[in-house]
Amino acid sequence: MRRIALFVGGGALALTSAWAIAQNTPESLLPPGFEKPKASAQKPPATKPDGPAPVAPSSPVVQPIPEGASAATAPASRTPALPSGAKVPSLRELEAMSPDELDELLGLKPKFDMPPAARRSMKQVGMLASGEGGLPPGSLAGQSGDLVKAALDGNKGALVSRWGHILLRRALVSRLDAPQNMNPADFAAARAALLVRMGEGEAARAIVQDVDAANYTPDLTQAAMDAYAFTADITGICPVIAVQGGERKDADWRVLRSICTTFQGNGAAGMAQLNQLARAGVWPQIDMLLAQKYAGAAGKARQAVKIEWDGVKEMTPWRYALTIGVGLEPPAALMKNASARYSYVAATAPMLPLTSRAQAADRAASTGILSSAAMVDLYGQIYAQPDITGKWADSAASLRNAYTGAAAADRMSAIRALWDGGGDPQGRYSRLVLTAYAAARMPPSNDFSNDAPDLITSMLAAGLDRNALRWAPQAGKGSLAWALLALAAADANTKVDSGDLDSFHGDDTSPGHRKSRFLIAGLAGLGRVDQAVSRDFAAKLGVDPDRQTKWARLIDQAAEVDNAELVVLLAGVGMQGDGWDKMTSLNLFHIVSALNRVGLSAEARMIAAEAVARG
C-alpha cells in the first residue's frame, strides 16, 4: 500500500453538534497542516517491553553488618511515617479508614497491584483479534492521534443505521495499536466512552478491563466509571479505586470508594463513611439511600434502608445502576420520558424481569445492540416461564408459531402479528430483527408477494442475504423488493438500467423521494449503475453527485490508501442521527463506496439496503 503525504487545508478542528449529525454534512476534521489518512501499518514497529529492564540482584542479597560496627552505624529501622504536609487524621477518622486508605496515608501503597510478569502490555488493547473478525491491529498506528481522537470524541453515539452501529462496534473493540502521539490508555478511554454513548456498556467494560489499573489515566478512569455504571457493575470499579486511591476527590469517587470498602471486608468502616457522606450531602438523598442499601448487602454491616421516590424528578446513570443493582425497578412514571440509554441498559441487564427486558429490546434491537439470535433467546425464556402472562406471553407464543406452524400461511400470520405489535417504526423494525430466521424459513411464493418487502427486510436485518435472494422471482422490476435485492446481492456484475429506476421512482411515496435518493446513492457506491445513468437519475432528484465536503474528501482518501479502520470511524461520524431523515444521499454514497473499496462490501451492501428499507 502506498502512503500519501499531501496536506489538506481547513480551519481548526471542530467536531461540534453543528456538523456531527448526518443531516448537516461534516465540514472539517483536520486542523491546518494535517496529513491525510495513511495506509494501515502491516508491520508495526517493534516496541520496547513494558517496565524497566530486569536487574540482577546483588550478592549476597542481605549483607551482614561489618565486624566492629557500632550501633550508630547500623541501618536505622524503617517505620512508616506520614508524607510531608499530610494532615494528621483524628482517632475517629482513623477508625473509619480501610486498610487500603491507611496504606495510602502512610505512603505504603504500591503503584502496581500485581508482579511484573503478570502485567499486560499496552501495545494492543481490545477484545477482538484480527483472526476473530477484528480489523488489522496496525490500522491506526501511522495516523495522528488528534485525527483519531476527533473522530471518536465527535461521534455522539446515535447512528441512523443498525448495520453501521454493528460495524462501528466491531472496529472499536478490535485489538489495536494506539495512533501516533496518543497514550494507549487514552486511546482505550476514547473508544470505551464512544461505546457507552452507543449503548454498548458490556463492550466498553471489556475495553477498560483490558488495561491494568496502574496504567489508568484520568480519562480512562472516567470511561471505566461510565462503563461500570452502564452495566450496573458497581463493584467493578473497585480494583481501579484500590490502585488509584485518593487521585480523585469528587462525590462519585468518594461514595464508590466507601462502597468498595464494605465489599473488601471492612463493612463497619464503609458504612460509617457512607453515613458521613450522607450527612455531608455529597449525593442527593435518594442516591445515598440506594448506595447504603447496596453496601449493606456486604458482610455483617447490614441495615434496613427504605427507598422512597417522592420528589425524584429525573434519572441519572448511577441512580439507575444502584436501583437495579439492589433488585428494584424505578417508577414507570419516572422512566416515561427518560433517555433511551436506560432502555439499552435494561435490554441486557440480567437482574431485571424478562418482561422489562423485552420492552427495552423493542428499542435496542433496531439500533444494533441486540442481534436476532439474542432477541429469539429472550422471547424463548419468556415462553418457558408459565407465570408470565399477557402481551409478552402472547408474543412469545407467536414467535414459536412463526417457526412451528403446520402451514406456511399460519407461520406468516404469526410473523405479521409480531410485526404489528412493535408499535412505532423503531419498535416495528426491532420486530423485523426478531423474525429474521423465521422469515428465512418461509417458502418463496406468490401467495405472500405483498409481504415480500418486509420478509426481505427482516432477513437482511440479520445478514441473511442468500435466503432473501430466493425471493427474486416475487420481486417485480422497479418494486421495493427488487430495490432491496439489487443492493443486497453479492454479485456486482449486473447493472441496473434507467427504466427500472424510473419505475421505482414513480411508485416512491417516501418524503422527498428519500428511498429513491438512497437507492441511487447505494447503487452508485457499489458500482452497480452506469455513471451516465446515475448522473441523469440524480439530476432528476435534484442531487449534485459532484458536491464535496472536507469529510467526504477525508473518507475517500482513507479508502484510497485501504485503511479500513479509519474508514469505519469516519463512516460513523457521517451517519449520526436519530433517524434516516437525518441522513443525506451524498453521505450514504461516500460511506457505501468507501466501505466497498476497503473490502467491507458485505457491510456496505447491508447498509445500503437498510437505507432504502427504512428511508
Characterise this structure.
This protein has 615 residues and is mainly alpha-helical. It folds into 3 domains: 115-325, no CATH class; 351-468, no CATH class; 475-615, no CATH class. It is 51% helix and 1% strand. It is built from 31 helices and 4 strands. The protein has helices at residues 17-20, 91-96, 99-105, 145-153, 162-173, 184-198, 201-208, 218-230, 238-244, 251-263, 267-280, 285-295, 317-325, 332-335, 341-347, 354-367, 372-383, 391-404, 408-420, 425-434, 436-440, 452-461, 465-469, 480-488, 498-507, 514-526, 531-541, 550-560, 564-574, 585-597, 601-614, and strands spanning 7-8, 34-35, 124-125, 176-177. The strands form 2 sheets. The protein has a two-stranded antiparallel ribbon with strand order 1-2. Helix 5 runs antiparallel to helix 6, helix 10 (251-263) runs antiparallel to helix 11 (267-280) and helix 18 packs antiparallel against helix 19 (408-420). The longest helix has 15 residues, at 184-198.
